[in-house]
Structures are given as C-alpha cells and as structure tokens.
Amino acid sequence: MTWPWIAIALALVIWRASRGLGARAQSVLLPTAVGVLIIAVWRLLCLVQNEPIFPTPEETYGGIRELVVDNTLRDYVIASLFRVTWGFFLAALVGIPLGLVVGWSLRAYRALNPIIQGLRPISPIAWIPISILWFGVGDRAAIYLIFLAAFFPIVVGTMAAVRNISLVYVRSARNFGVEGVELFRRVVLPAAMPQIITSLRIALGVAWLVVVAAEMIAVDSGLGYLINDARNMGRRYDLVVAGMLAIGAIGILLDLLIRRLERFDEVRWGYAGR
Amino acid sequence: MTTSSESARPKVVISGVDKSFDTRAGPLEVLTDVNLTVHEGEFVCLLGPSGCGKSTLLNIVGGFERPTSGTVTIEGEAVTAPDKRRVFVFQEYGIFPWASVWDNVALGLGGQPRDKVIETVQYYIDLVGLSGFEKTYPMELSGGMKQRVEVARALAVDPDVIYMDEPFGALDSLTRLQMRAELIKIWKQEQKTILFVTHDVDESVQLADRVVVFSERPGRIKEVVEVGLEHPRDLGSPEYGVAKNRLYELLGVLHTI
Fold it and tell me: How many other CB atoms sit within 10 Å of the CB of residue A146?
C-alpha cells in the first residue's frame, strides 16, 4: 500500500508551496491538501483494522459510482432537496412576518416570546411521533419536521434583528413623515435584512441537518433513507459513507448559494468588516 | 446675518422645560427650568459639557421626547410629535445604509409628483456637492459625504427649522471646517432656522448668531451669548477671540490649562 504515503507527501508539498501565495490560491490549495491528507490517513487506518469496521476509500468510491450509475444518488438528492426546499420556504414564509411583528410590537413580544422560547428547545426529532400521527408516513411528515427545524432560527433571528434596529433610523423615518406600512417596507425590513439573511442561512443548515433524521423514519427515498436502508438491508457501509459524503457536499453548496444573498447592495452594509 | 433678536419673529419658544428620567437609582434630573426663544432665520448653538442635557432638549423640541413639565411651541403650536416641517440631522449617521444617495435624499418626498421629486432631489444633491454619487451606497462614501447626504435629505423637505445634534462630531477637523463653511452658505441661501447642539466652543463661535451655554447636569441655561460677528468670520480677529474667551469663562475652563 504505497499510494497513501505518496498522497501524504503530496499534501505536505502543497502545504509548503502555498506559503507566500495569495489568499485566493491558498483558500483552494490548503483545503485540498487537508482533504488529500484525510483520505490518505483514512486509508492507512483501514490497514490496521482486523475486521472490517469502516469501509476503505476505494470501497466508498465504488459505492458512490454504484449510486451514480443507477441514478439512485440523483433521485435521492432531488427527493431530499424537495423536502428541504418546502420545509425551509414554509418556515421563511411564516417565520419572517411573525418575527417582524413580534420584534416590532412590544406587546406581541411580551405575549409570544416566552412561548417561542419554550418551543424552541424541543428538538424536531421529538416531534416525529406527532408528525406521523398528523401527517402519516410520507413527504408531509418529513416536510413538517424540516419546517419546525428551520422555523425557530428564522423567527428568533428576525425578531432579534428588528429589536436591534438602530433607534436613529426609526426616528429619522418618523421625522420625515414615513409611518405605518411604509415604515415597515422602507425602514424596518431593510434595516433587519442583513440579520434576517444570517438567520435564513442558519435555518437552511439546520433544515439540511434534520432532513436526514426525517427521512430515516417517515419516507422511503432521500439521502437519509439511503443511509438507513444501506445499513439495514445489507450492511453496505460503503453506501452509508457515500451518503454521508453526499450530504456534506450538498450542505456546502446550499450554504454557498444562500450566501450569495449577502452580496446585494441593499444588505452589504450589514456585513462590513467581516 | 446677525439678526438682532428683537426684530425677528419668535419661531421656537421653550418655556419652563424640566426633564427627568427614571433610572434604577431613582429619578435623574437632566434639565431644569429651560426658557429660550429662537427667532425665525436665527442660527442658535446649544453649548455645554457632555451629559448636560442639550441633546435631550433638542429631542424634546423635535417631538421625540416629552418634557416632564413645561412646554415647547413652534409658531404658537405645541410640539407633541416629530414633524416634517422641522427635521433632524442626526449625531450618528441617520441616513439609511441600504438605500442609495438618491433614495436617501428622496426619503421625505413621498406623495409628491414624480418630476417634482426628481427635480428636488437632484437640486439638493448638487447643492451639497454630491453630483455623480446619486447611485452610490453610503458604505462607499466618506464620513463627510455621508453627512452631506444627511444635510441634503433634510433640506429636500424644505423644513423651516433644522435641528443638528453634533452633526460634524465624527469628522476630521479639516472636513469639519469645510462642512461648517458650507452649512453657513446653505443657511444663508435657504433662510432656515437652525438649532445646533455642540460641545465645541470654536464650532459655536464660528456658526452661531447666539450661543446658549448650559451648566453641567442638571442642565440649565447659564447664559445666552450674542456672537455679533458677520459671516464670513475672521477666525483671527480680536472680536472672535473675545467671544471665545467669554464662552470658555462661562464653561469654567478659561486659563485652566
């Protein structure tokens, strides 16, 4: 087994060579070096196992190939994204307006904040029995769980965003005769927007986290289902790890996608100095 | 324009204003028995040490806060809420970072016909020297330019009174001088009444017709000093020095360094 050693040497060479390069080159090269290193160490650790307790990189690669060739991976990714998209958008649709109102009105805040804070620590996993009772086994139960997971970060983040709006913005708007709905549209919403986007980003991460758990119980497709099924049906741990890698990769893509929202002129001010 | 205060019409009348805030340690008295009449077209500076209540007074006059007792009237009408006819230029940047220069200046112009809005916004952007920056967002502007946007936004609604709360406090000293000169130019051209809060003696002598000197907390008016100098003011003249020394004396810091 020589290739892992060559890979480790390669990683160290990249590490050395990246010194003095620009930030952009480094942020590509350094993670690549770390990735190569991890795969190599992974392979070497597999050498010392007496019984197969973890699939090797080669076996995992074979698993990924298998999933790609018969289109299972594509179908399952689409199934998972479908559920996350629905759950996430419903959460945003309800969470943002609710957060705006509760953040703005002191009475609404006093009335609802304790309840929101009380529901928030209940893990979406704890809702599984009830969601199956309500929605049966299927997409809707899974979407409901994702909705719950995404809803609380959005509502709490939006609420905090509104409560943090600088008084001077609200005062100047009022001074210039901007009131009521206009005040919301022209001041409250845009002032809170950078923080709302941050909360959407957190919520999307949590939603993707929960889709796996939801699919392990409620449905028969998706990446979460794949992982559970591969273990139950034939101890196919190569497929389990392949599924985990797919979840990680898509998680990165989702985050990159939602981060694009931060670049708009209307919100860029909120991230200055980051 | 050194309006002698007797000839012009009274614009803002502050009478018997007290203000105290409830704090955990009990009521905190910030203003005591403030009486002041500001005349139409006058430039009045409120000068005092930090925490003397001068900003609080401005917020009361602007309708953002209520006095504990006493009244504020503008042209005989009691002030109860903020009003577009009297606008603030804020201490921290009150312009909206999410809106372009153009949209910021247009803030108070809702409900007017479109071409009128376009004409007004362009006029005031040009007036404060920001032509060409209409589509720029505040985060790309310098501190001085942001403050100009704020001044243009205030002028665009054609107010009769402008309240300025240490508007140039965050600028470097050269930009500050420049902004003062431009403010005086605009003030003369637009004939506004200006109430200007500052803790800077030089600033008050350079700008004001009259300087209202506050005592430390609880703030009360110690004295009102007529500056009595024509614009443009010679910052090296003996009269300028005399006025400045008088203010230092009132603030208790003359010949202390």
Answer: 30
